[in-house]
């Protein structure tokens, strides 16, 4: 049975980057998303991309594309809801999500999250005291509670949903750079270009 599947959250507006698809921007000789796939795919039994809008723009990756179904541009929680639905369809026990704009993910992300959380808990990555709620492992049973949360609450903050459920924080080292560095702005992309060149 498939136990752990992965979903890359690649939706959103990329407004701080001037619009377009942030994960498809060039980083080194590849795209930001190539880096995410390369680091994350070996850690999960199946992998999909979640996004808003026309899926054909990500077709070249050859991965299943799962669209948001809750609403249009409702933030990462809508993507996590779609991810949990897909994980349930795959017969998985857990879904690990990562953001499509985090090109330096830890190679032991899935292992550490799985190791440290009880079966009913959400495991959320932290680094340097900062919580990264989109880099998390979710029991698929949370699909219903999350659907209710999105319908009932006015907040769309991922952390608010996490805090409403049993969860555990899992700290990752930043030796060699923060593995959850995410590209939000053109200057972040500059910084990522420098880091991608490092051996
Ligand atoms: N599925 C889905 N994912 C989203 C949505 N908005 C943001 N995300 C994802 O959530 C993560 C964090 O996104 P942000 O960088 O905060 O938002 P963004 O829309 O990409 O960029 P900004 O407009 O600059 O805030 C990324 O992985 C995005 O792909 C959405 O409406 N739907």
Output the keywords:
two-stranded antiparallel ribbon; globular; alpha/beta; seven-stranded mixed β-sheet; binds guanosine-5'-triphosphate; 6 helices; Spore Coat Polysaccharide Biosynthesis Protein SpsA, Chain A
Within CATH, the superfamily carries the name Spore Coat Polysaccharide Biosynthesis Protein SpsA, Chain A
Kindly estimate the percentage of residues that lie in beta strands according to DSSP: 15-25%
Total helices: the number is 6
Fill in the CATH topology.
Answer: Spore Coat Polysaccharide Biosynthesis Protein SpsA, Chain A
Q: How far apart lie the N and C ends?
A: 38 Å
* Low-pLDDT sequence parts: none
Please tell me the overall pLDDT.
93
Under the CATH scheme, the architecture is Alpha-Beta Complex
Give the spatial strand order of the biggest sheet. 5-4-1-6-8-7-9
Bound molecules: guanosine-5'-triphosphate
Number of strands: 9
- Summed up, the domain count is 1
> What percentage of residues falls in helices of 4 or more residues?
25-40%
User: What is the global morphology?
Assistant: globular
**Helix and strand element order:** EEEHEEHEHEEHHEH
Main beta-sheet annotation: 7 strands, mixed
Catalytic activity: Mo-molybdopterin + GTP + H(+) = Mo-molybdopterin guanine dinucleotide + diphosphate
Cofactor: Mg(2+)
Function: Transfers a GMP moiety from GTP to Mo-molybdopterin (Mo-MPT) cofactor (Moco or molybdenum cofactor) to form Mo-molybdopterin guanine dinucleotide (Mo-MGD) cofactor.
Protein name: Molybdenum cofactor guanylyltransferase
